[in-house]
Hints:
The protein is of the alpha+beta class. It folds into two domains: 9-116, Jelly Rolls (Sandwich), CATH 2.60.120; 148-209, Arc Repressor Mutant, subunit A (Orthogonal Bundle), CATH 1.10.10.10. The chain has five helices and eleven strands; from the N terminus they run αββββββββααβααββ. The protein has helices at 14-22, 107-116, 118-162, 173-180, 184-196, and strands at 26-31, 36-38, 46-52, 55-60, 66-72, 77-78, 93-96, 100-106, 166-168, 200-202, 206-209. The strands form three sheets. The protein has a four-stranded antiparallel beta sheet with strand order 1-8-3-6. A four-stranded antiparallel beta sheet has the order 2-7-4-5, with helices on one face. It has a three-stranded antiparallel beta sheet with strand order 9-11-10. Strand 10 and strand 11 (206-209) form a beta hairpin. Helix 2 crosses helix 3 (118-162), helix 3 crosses helix 5 and helix 4 crosses helix 5 (184-196). The longest helix is centred in the middle third of the chain and has 45 residues, at 118-162. It is elongated, with a radius of gyration of 23 Å. The chain starts with 13 loop residues before the first helix and ends with a strand.
Amino acid sequence: MEKHINLITKHIPDEKYAELIKSNVINIRKYSKGSCMHLENDICSHLEVIIEGNVSIDRIDEEGNVMCVTNFTKTDIIGGNLLFSKTPSYPMSIFAKSDVIVMQIKKDDLFHLICEYPDFLKSYLENISDNAFILGDRIRGYVRLKLRQILINYLKKQSQIQKSNIVKLNMTKKDLALLMGVQRTSLSRELAKMHKDKLIELNRDYIKVI
């Protein structure tokens, strides 16, 4: 079988790779476009390295709305930061955006390779650190977007009730923040951003919806 060069294989000699494939320590798996690879809260039992295709990391809310948090593609790894956790479950759902081929390796087998090849350990740690930073940054962006959408929905509703695009605030910003389930500073920061983006005009006693 062709040796796909990625995080795992680039540090493993060809003979060792052939042995791992033959003994099913390393498995190749295919997912068809649109299929669910892993659901939120599923247990992560394998490290997966994408050989071909594109993968979407999605958050599905209580109403069934899907928000794409980030995308992974060729040579990216899935589950690297989860396998050795005390609670190794996927925090979000993972879908195949195209036909996807992944290389899979179980936790115990991965641990043996990490111990046997120090260069692999170094690359592995670098990769999961980079992924954690990127994913964390995308999640922060998702949370900001979610708060903005909550605010937009609230202002639209109040605008309809008050029959005006000037929404009078019948509560303090602290109480409004409690209603939204966020800190007052987070609410004020998002309102300021919406003002900067020319979605609203801010006043002490009202918000004008532009």
